[in-house]
Design goal:
By secondary structure, the chain is mainly beta. The protein contains no helices and 11 strands. The strands form 2 sheets. Strands 2, 4, 5, 6, 9, 10 and 11 form a 7-stranded mixed sheet that branches. The chain has a 4-stranded antiparallel sheet with strand order 1-3-8-7, with no helix packed on it. The N and C termini lie far apart (about 40 Å).
């Protein structure tokens, strides 16, 4: 059982940057990792994912070129760099781990979740 803990959220002006981290209690080598976000009253949505070996990444179109997902398996940590943040991207950001064979954008594919970190973009 792996436990995940996000950190790095906060308040940032529109156009600003934040660096989110997701630290795991155990090894992450066997998991694809995903980042999701959920705004008040909205469904949880996919943001980015990275494969077990960090070779492959996937992003929702709206964040391509602005967000970067990365991982350090030796440190059991996954990162999400948020640049040029928009106010409408205010949400709780979650990291999640999936042991499925393929990377996925679906929340149902991820069996381990962190509690989330609040990201607020001010206009």
């Amino acid at each position: 059982q792996v436990q995940l803990q996000e950190s790095g959220g906060g308040l940032v002006q529109a156009g600003g940057s934040l660096s989110l981290s997701c630290a795991a209690s155990g090894t992450l080598n066997r998991y694809h990792m995903g980042w999701f976000r959920q705004a008040p009253g909205e469904e949880r949505e996919f943001v980015a994912a990275i494969s077990r070996n960090a070779v492959t990444t996937d992003y929702v179109d709206s964040v391509k070129g602005r967000f970067t997902v990365s991982r350090d398996n030796a440190k059991s940590t996954v990162y999400l760099q948020l640049n040029s943040l928009k106010p409408e991207e205010t949400a709780v950001y979650y990291c999640a781990a999936s042991s499925w064979a393929q990377m996925s954008r679906f929340t149902s594919s991820y069996e381990h979740w962190g509690r989330g970190t609040q990201v607020t973009g001010s206009s």
